[in-house]
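Dear colleague,

Following up on Tuesday's group meeting, I ran the structure prediction for the two-component complex that the binding team flagged. I've pasted the input sequences exactly as they went in, so you can double-check that nothing got truncated or mislabelled along the way. The structure tokens for the whole assembly follow below. Feel free to forward this to whoever is handling the docking comparison.

Inputs:
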Amino acid sequence: MRYMLLIYRDEKVYEQLSVPERGKIFQEAFDYSEARRPSGFYQGGEPLEPTGTASTVRMRNGEALMTDGPFAETKEQLAGYTIVEARDLDEVLAFATRHPLVKAGLSIEVRPIRVGPPQ
Amino acid sequence: MGIEEIFRADYGRILATLIRLLGDIDVAEETLQEAFAAALEQWPAAGIPANPVSWLVSTGRHKAIDRLRRRAWLEEKQDEIARHIELSTPRLADDEETPVPEDRLRLIFTCCHPALATEAQVALTLRTLGGLSTEEIARAFLVPAPTMAQRLVRAKAKIRTARIPYEVPPMEALAERLEAAMVVVYLVFNEGYTASFGARLVRNELCEQAIRLGRMLVELLPIHAEPKGLLALMLLHDSRRETRLDASGDLVLLEDQDRTRWDRAQIDEGAALVEAALSEGGRPPGPYALQAAIAALHAQAATAAATDWQQIAALYGVLARVHPTPVVELNRAVAVAMSSGLERGLALLDTLDGDGGLAGYHLLSAARAELLRRLGRHAEAVESYRQALALVSNEAERRHLEKRLREVTS
């Protein structure tokens, strides 16, 4: 079964970090995930540019309206995602709990990826 | 044993086995209802089978297979046909239908999975292992029945969709997950014991359910000490249930309770469990065992005056190290006051007050007021009783504080 790990961070905190600090966090996360690729658990993932680069499209008065910024203003912002293939939620939670990004203060939301048509 | 008794006593056991066989809580619940309905229909004429639990599991499983077969043919659902074939294959030998103790362990660990909200954990545990109806759980927690039903539906959907495993956690995770399960059991007990609202009968039912779950954990995890501590703690508290309120529903303090009406059998069982929990060597005793040891000292004192406060204060000292919370410190201060002098206890309370961890907690003010009253410092006691009254929410406790306040002002 596949799960998506949605990685959230407080961008204000992230902005305070130096480039080498950001690089170190990213490298640790990269290594951590890649180590689980050969077994088929880690299926891929990517970081996202900050929400300052986001554009949102929604319907307003029957017209598609584009706005600058993320879908919603939140305390923590989506920073990236990871896809894993696991036998159950516990396997994913164990992976997330020891994730270097969690240790670095980021949050990970785990969601099952739906298979087939909506129920 | 009649059908009703079997339903009450073995509901959790049968359901847990059906969940293992059928792979889904909802399907297992529905088929178990059908199996009980079949029993009500057939047993009065045919007699109760030699092994009623196995009969119900087997009947439930066959009903589930019939249902899946019907539905699969009607809707030609590929995955359900696959599931049906899986269920019907001879691979599933008959002895797999025999309930095994791990079934109920799997179920409690699934219900108390940390990925579910605590209130959902409590509701699911009572529904599945306790066999309480949604309406009964809703009544016990003063929640409208549809809200409780919704809570259960959501929790079960999450277990299914996010695939929360139906298994006993592996060794490295077991201690932490057991801790979570014990929190749920003790929460159920306290909800029943604190009787702060709602009908008495419903609340007693919660205490009984919690004790049954505690027994189950002791029975299924015999090498673990803390379930014994938890069961002992609940039994020792419950032994005093009948004497905690007087005829008019007013609170009776421990020292004023009629000790002859305490439940001896529960006290003896609790004390033996405390001993077992504490003697399991190699590790420091856990918080439940320590609290139970304290409760045992209270329960075994022939009179309030004979209470071994010295020992109780020492145990609170140990508890404060393994489980450092302001409430434990508050209790330690009271034990010190009773064993080494009211002034010393009062000094500890003042330190605690300064720390601010119990700001807004009525029992800190109430304890302070009580010590001041015993010291004859009535003016200060009045002030503390008023502070406690401003914070208290339980009606019986409020009446008790008001009574004390009247005593010191007159």
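Chain B is about 70% helix and 0% strand.

Cheers,
M.
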